[in-house]
Prior knowledge:
Layout: E1 3-5, H1 16-20, E2 26-28, E3 33-35, H2 45-49, E4 55-57, H3 67-76, E5 80-81, H4 92-95, H5 126-129, H6 139-142, E6 152-156, H7 165-175, E7 181-186, H8 191-201, E8 205-213, E9 216-223
Amino acid sequence: MTYVVAEACIRCKYTDCVDVCPTDAFREGPNFLVIDPDECIDCTLCVAECPVEAIYAEDDVPADQRDFIALNAELAGQWKPIVERKPGLPDADDWAKAKDKRGELDLAGSASWPVRASNIGVAPLSIATSTFSQGVSTMNQHAQVHVAPDQVYPFDARGIAKRFRHAAIFGALDALHAGETMHFVNDHDPLPLLDQLQTRYGDAVSIEYKQRGPDGIVIDFVKR
């Protein structure tokens, strides 16, 4: 079992937790920290140090934040280690009281890649107006919502950089209205993702395999 940084950290990034980590398992993004699951030794020391109580044991992550488990693992492979405490963000104390901060998560922080979590995925307007590099730009070609008259919207995950796929998929499903379908195409069977979707959406999203074989996976996700 590993520990996970969840939503409360966004736009705060207090680093009290970093000082007590014996394995330097924390990784730093522009406005968020994550824990590398390969480095975490489950010591629990960081939990009590977080002023906004953003750190959970993997098994204790709230149901509506289970996607942060995969997000920590993915971003840990992209962001650099942080090994010393530093001041929180300038407006951290204000954001510490805020809720529903997912849309504020800055996934890169580069001037050439000004992407926030709310812009990743299949959502009205954001896909039409956002251009991403290194494979994420192909979302504009493959993953579109609210463009098909029959309320079935294509989402080809193969054109999205792997480290952003889960965030894109959750964004797509959040954007769908009741009765609409996301026609999902992937190069492998996303069983761990389906477990996360079941935890997050329950009966609100139905899952129906349309194709399941060596040539690829096609699944219809229907928003109820």
